[in-house]
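User: ok so my PI wants both of these folded by tonight, can you help

Assistant: No problem, let's get them done. Here's the first:
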Amino acid sequence: MPDTPPSSPRWRRAPAPTGGSGTSQGGAGPVRLNKRLADMGLCSRREADEWIERGWVRVNGAPAVMGVKVGPQDRVTVERQAEAAQAQRVTILLHKPMGYVSGQAEDGHQPAVTLINAHSHWREDRTRTRFAPAQLRGLAPAGRLDIDSVGLLVLTQDGRIARHLIGQDSEIEKEYLVRVALDGAEARNTQAQFPSEKLALLRHGLQLDGQPLKPAKVSWQNEEQLRIVLREGKKRQIRRMCELVGLKVVGLKRIRIGSVLLGPLPAGQWRYLGPGELF
């Protein structure tokens, strides 16, 4: 909310947390400035540190210094240059093929970001954004797909989007199509042989790493394929869930994150998140 008249182009205010001012009201004490900016949804902590280094953040009218702590009573403002720089950050939707890892290279396998170049940009992309090598700087996956899985992978320069998708409090749905077979069985029509009580366990009641899983939406799409919708993302979660109920995953494809669909995007190609698209 601006602290100056709307015509002022210079800065905007980071609103203070509600629930009292100072440590004596509501227990709200000083926090690091980068956390305050991130909690307000203005940026990620890393972006906040960049803004502070560039002199784009002020506390009570004075330029902020790295590591400073602020309380609810402190007036934090952000220069408009920060908003302009943030607007240039891109978010990319990739149809990750098999054989690529989501993050850093490992065991000789290339990271998915190596697929992002001008030649693999989907020709049907409706945005007007043009690819530039600078868009690769700081581009990181917001979530993961293991090397044997395919489908929608989000890579972003925008810390707000990353936090929205993979932050500790994220409730964003991820939808998968999962081809399965009964472990050790050769017969087809897995659906007919799979007990209904185990399907119910997939929906709710399993634990991984000693922690109960959040309820999931699980239904049969056909005799060999499940549709699974999760609101969390533990490592190899779907494969491990299926193992616990006697199923083997033979194919896994992510087709949706929030309200953003993989759609007809070809494997190995990518497009930009459109200006009107929200997760």
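One down. Here's the second:
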Amino acid sequence: MIEEAEAVFRNWKESPDLTRSRPWPYRPAPWPDELLSSWFLRVAHGLTLKPYTLAHATWRSVPPLLTRDIDNMADPRIVGVMAAKVDVPVQRAWETTLAAYDGKLVERYAPGGRNAWILQVGVRHRVRGLGGLQYCPVCFTEHVYFRRAWRVGFVTTCPDHGLRLLDRCDQCGSTLEPHRSAALHLCPRCGLDLRQGSLIPASRRVIELQRRAQSVLARGWGHLGGQILGWSHLYFDTLRIVVKALSFGVRSQALRNAVARRHGGDPSSFPKGAKTSIEQMCVGDRHRVLDLAAPLMKAWPERLVEACQEARMWRSWILHDAHDPPFVIADVINEHLTLRFYKPSTQEIVAALAYLQGTGRPVLKADLMRLVGDCQEVNAIFQAHAIR
């Protein structure tokens, strides 16, 4: 898709129409790790234009910008034009989109679709119904812009300031909708300065887990326990399976209790009406679950196996919807958390048959199967008994 953005970039730069080829008078380059939507809004504010006015004047609402999650869509028509009008390389503009995580965070990114670990903002027209946009109040006091990392589900803290991220306005509780505000740091509903948001200390082990995960994401490979993972998405697929086991399902509460007894943390149940998808959970719930997942990922795989065995969470509960789980976790679960069928020995079947004969009642094969189960050897021994 970056090739399509390159084509759009050249088409606009080489156009004889000066309204297309001429850069905007205000053209700031993206800040480090800035989101595409944040970059576009900064440009609009710098040009003293409403975001809708700039979007319509530039794209004629094709594609629509403010009624879509443009960070997730990664539309080449938006990326290419932004690069041309701000006069930055297309590669730098592409890195503001979430699709740049393709092959690293996920094996194959689906632009505009649901991707593992990419937080959903719940776009409906211009309203954002979910808290998929996060921020750090202290970071906002330094530079007001939204980071791309803040749209990733396992990112719930600001390691630089040791704080938990926020995903709602402290005063009115509304989700962050900067496209409807006069400035990125203002709540559009109540006008609160988001830089005055609550300073909530983050869990140290969540910060450690997040730093390790972000390092894996930056490198493109990682390791877990004694195994090297050649592709970073295998690490994140494994982490997601662990977090889902702790979050959802009838056995999740028992697993949270087991982890909390062994390693500490908050095992309390989620509030009524909580979302049943990691990508839709609020930052507080994700932070609490990641605090329980952190010790399991640190001493791999012993702690995971011990906690699951205590909670009686077996393979069918952990991998019930994982179609192709990474080997690093599938091998552990198949070896330690699989309830295998028991096959009775010949001596056990013969002893059970003798017991039934001792009751003085007619011996039926169904009675024998109720005692020892069903297998081919039961049929053979019962037939030999019937012949005798």
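The first strand starts at residue 123 and ends at 124. The mean pLDDT is 92. Good luck tonight!
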